[in-house]
Amino acid sequence: MLADHTDQFPNARCARQQINNKTLAPVVPKLTRYDYTGLCKLADHNTDHPLRQLSMPPASSPTAVSPRSLSMDKRPKSPPALSLSRCQLYSSLSLFLISIFLSVLITFLLTRNAVRSQLQKTGQEAQAVTAKLVVPEGGIGSLNAGHDITRLRGSGKFLLGNTRQRGNETADAEVELDRKGSEPGAEELRLSGELFPIWYNLTLKVFVPGFGVHISPTLNLTFDGDLLLKFGVNRTTKRIELNALKLRFPVHNLTQYKLSRVDDDGTVNGQAPKVVGIRVDEAREKVFFELDGELTEGAHYTLRIRYSGPIASKLSGLYLTSYTTLSGEHKCAAVTQMEPTDARRMVPSFDEPEFKAIFRLSVIHPEGSSAVSNAKELRERQPTELAEWVRTDFDDTLPMSSYLLALVVSDFEYVEGNTSLGTRFRIWSRKDALNLTSYALRAGIKVLEFYEHYYGIPFPLPKQDMMAFPDFAAGAMENWGLVTYREKYLLYSPDLYTAQQKQAVASVVAHELAHQWFGNLVTMRWWSDLWLNEGFATLMEYLGTDAISDGLFRMDDYFLVEALDSAFDRDSRITSHPLFFEIRKAEDVTEAFDSITYSKGASVLRMIRAVMGEEHFKKGLNIYLTRFKYRNAEHTDLWDALTEAVPEGMKDWKGNNFSVKQFARQWTEQTGYPIVQVQRLDDRRVQLSQQRFRMDPDSRETPEAVQNSSAWEVPVQRLDDRRVQLNQQRFRMDPDSRETLEAVQNSSVWEVPVWWSLNGESEPMEWLKDNCILNATDSDVLVLNSRSQGFYRVHYSADGLQHIQSQLFRDHKNLSLASRTRLIDDTFTLAEAGYIAYEAPLNLSKYLVEEKDYPPWEMALAGFSTIQNYFEDEPEAGPMRAYIKQIINTLFERALPHIKDQRDDEEHFFDNLLRHRIVQRMCTLRDDRCISAILNIYADGFVRPCQSAANLTMSSGCSRIPAPFRALAYCEGIHYGAERDWDFVFRMFRIETVQVEKERLLLALACSRDTHTLKRLLSLAADASSTVIRLQDKPSVFSHVASRIIGKKIVLDFFIDHWNEIYEDFKDQQTLLRSIISSSIVGKSKRVIDQMEQFLRDNERTTKNLDVFKQRLEVLQTNRRWMDRNFAPLAEWFRQHGTPLDDDELFQPIGGPIPSPIA
């Protein structure tokens, strides 16, 4: 079963030791916020441990006497008449003080030689581990061949002792703490740059429970560190400044912080200052080692630091993950997640991307566990002086940023293979899931080899590990040499995963391995260029996934419905941001992990690749990666490298040599994208113009905005010798909303590339700018952005769109798949924004009855979904549902017979995906044929076999529903079922261990019609102390509840009522917090907007720094304007075009077509 509160599972186990709350209650500390952490803590609280024998005896014992009771109550009593003089009292006190002084003096004389010997030994060890690495020319992060750290390692002997069991020598009270109340400024949070790292030689002892090792309560779920840091000096200073958070530094003996000045070969050279104080600044997440002298500019030093820290319960730094085996045994593991700024939670370090350094790691861990890190292991599980502890030593890493540091201590097992060039490749998982790792192994090896060929640079590491974890906040993390994943993005089974989930595994693997070059080999200098790391990896994942699937996933077409569509949607809002913008505080970088950074970044790079040509683009990447390997770079460095690879003779719109830097700047340093408008002038000419999209085209910008009007440079594909001219404006999703003066003043000029075709024939690209005229007759079919390579939308004139529509009805295949996909998406979006009437996309969509390809259908279904979400449970929804049913009915009838037996495969990926989407949409329209079929397979394929199976059989083992329809069946079963259906699915959810199946069951729980039940579920998701729902999955509960008609009515109120608790629990998990906020703020009425605005006023302190609130408020306002503008005309249109419904269908009572099958 799943780990949970101990009062719910009194017999839950961590490793081999049984927990019993009743017997341990008097001595067990309060459980941590995650009760599986509490279980792990309890596991090693063994009363037979030698430490327990050192505790004070019971009060009834003869020796259990306090010093006061011994001196006052048990002393021999003096005769009543006897009294002491003042002189006698003074004499007694003097003798007492003299005896204390003599005791201290004798102790010092006895121990001074031992202390001196230990200090000398410490200094010798520090010299012994000094490196032979010379600080490379060119500054931080460069590497000269032939220089490396010596293979001699620090002994870490003090970590083998029980240093903290005699008392907490590293208490915070012993360190000078700086807890300034004011919020630190951006510059205060950055490192000064006075110093830079060369290498870290780190030994860690990790007290992770669950392996049968005796760990005292004081040490349980902590780690000890012994760090030897080599650094250089850029500017003279009298302090050593490092990032550190939640780490504890002993100060009882400052001489242990040994500072030595060293030569390049590690030889101690000259005197070095001494550490005379330690100051921990919690607000700025730093530690300062104050010195009694100056560090010399240009010199190199080593500093030895001993410290300790906690193994976290939140999913950052070095944290605890927990799971239950198939046999019911509770297991624990320690894993890291450092990006963006959490390496400082494990290592006092230069925790900024610019400070690349070499890491050498040794780990002392419990016997029975394995340690895995970035570098290849040199010695594994070597015995130590403590019988229950082993040591693993790792090779030196290549120079890398601290956010890529990774460590895992677990009992996981692996499968192994090798690439064609000999790189060892391993996939790790919990033992019960090892049979689900073979696909990831094949995919990883295949895509790594593909990237080596594509980049023209061999993979620089001797090994690549990938590990799957039950608890992981992000989807995956690209740590160099050790990529970590959430289980559902690395494991795969054809019986449990849909083809789209298989594609997701391949895509995430491809994305993370693309980072091994673009992000790890060459790294951004600062977080402002995060988009370059993530945007490029997103672009490459589509190529890599096609390499894995041999093209069967058709990723170039899939890009249109996934990355490009996501980027268009987010960047159409005024609350969007440029790709490149200043991130002043590292803590703000979490706001940049969004679809602009990933999807728009990939879309802009894809457009540049299309302009340059594939081979020239690859050549430019090779120049960039070769020039900056093992170093840091900025986006302008990439533009320079790509410009060097531009084909000879390629010109820009002015006729000058094409500059990637000049072109790309306009697309990366300003917000938004253009829409190209096509207007007919006469029967032989059309005029093209541009603007940024506005929801209200009649709104006017300020004079300052007009002066800084946006313009893009446009490459155009031509069909003949007729000329083209363009005007430009900037595209906005919501014209009613106003940009701030700052945003207007920062407007820049775009130069837009446009590809186009005439009568289905494509021509080479040309550059266009300003006003222009295109000679095209009124009988020609003109299509812009014909291959959907440009990052812009197109608004056709009414007659132009009519010509396109006629062509689609005559022969839709005369237009390319990309053209059809773009046409459908653009027309629905422009109607949503108010540029055109909804009649245009609805009429255009009628051709879909002949369409067989998935991408155009996906865009149309998304457009229909937008309308459906606005109509929801309004009385006018009936005709709307009837019309959409007409459009999709033919495909639905073809798909219906396959519901019980569909098996996904890569060869028919798009066909199966379309079939699943059609069935899903028909069920959301409440079609009785769809609901009945789904409820039948819910009963016959899930409830009956799982009820009749052996007790506690998991859904992944007993469900017979085809994987593509499981989520839908579970959801509809609960929606139409009784309370016992919900309870049954909840029980199955609790015992399930396969993550994709567990997720289906969890999301099905949000499909209930009962608001009380939904609030119970939201309460579990909002409570960070509950582990019924894993921390990483809590936002998805809010999202799924909010996606249902009934859920929308309660989720916002629940969120507002519980905001203070949600904020306190999730403020340190910004990604999860933003997801909860985004999912909860839904609605379309003025009442909701007023409610939200009042909430923001009442909670300004906790909401002001979360931009996601501004984004969601903009969406609410846009939704309200949509209702005002579109609802009544659309309702009338559907009444005229939708098939009339019988009253019985319009007013069908809530309830299932069949009774609940739960016994």
Kindly describe this structure.
- The protein is α+β, with helices and mostly antiparallel strands.
- The strands form nine sheets. A seven-stranded mixed sheet has the order 7-10-5-4-13-16-15, with no helix packed on it.
- α7 packs across α8, α28 (1011-1022) runs antiparallel to α29 and α33 (1086-1098) runs antiparallel to α35 (1107-1137).
- Mean pLDDT is 82; it is low at 1-39, 41-84, 110-155, 165-174, 698-712, 717-731, 738-748 and 1143-1153.
- Residues 1092-1119 form a coiled coil.
- Keywords: Aminopeptidase, Cell membrane, Coiled coil, Disulfide bond, Glycoprotein, Hydrolase, Membrane, Metal-binding, Metalloprotease, Protease, Transmembrane, Transmembrane helix, Zinc.
- The active site is at residue 512.
List keywords for this structure.
16% strand; Peptidase_M1_aminopeptidases; alpha+beta; disordered N terminus; Immunoglobulin-like; Neutral Protease, domain 2; 1159 residues; 33 strands; five-stranded mixed sheet; hydrolase; 39% helix; globular
Instruction: Give me the count of strands.
Output: 33
Give the helix level as a range of percent. 25-40%
- How far the N terminus sits from the C terminus, by CA atoms, comes to 22 Å
As an assembly, this protein is: single chain
Which CATH architecture of the domain at 190-411 would you pick?
Sandwich
Total helical segments:
36
Main location: membrane
Keywords: Aminopeptidase, Cell membrane, Coiled coil, Disulfide bond, Glycoprotein, Hydrolase, Membrane, Metal-binding, Metalloprotease, Protease, Transmembrane, Transmembrane helix, Zinc
Cofactor: Zn(2+)
Pfam families: ERAP1_C (PF11838), Peptidase_M1 (PF01433), Peptidase_M1_N (PF17900)
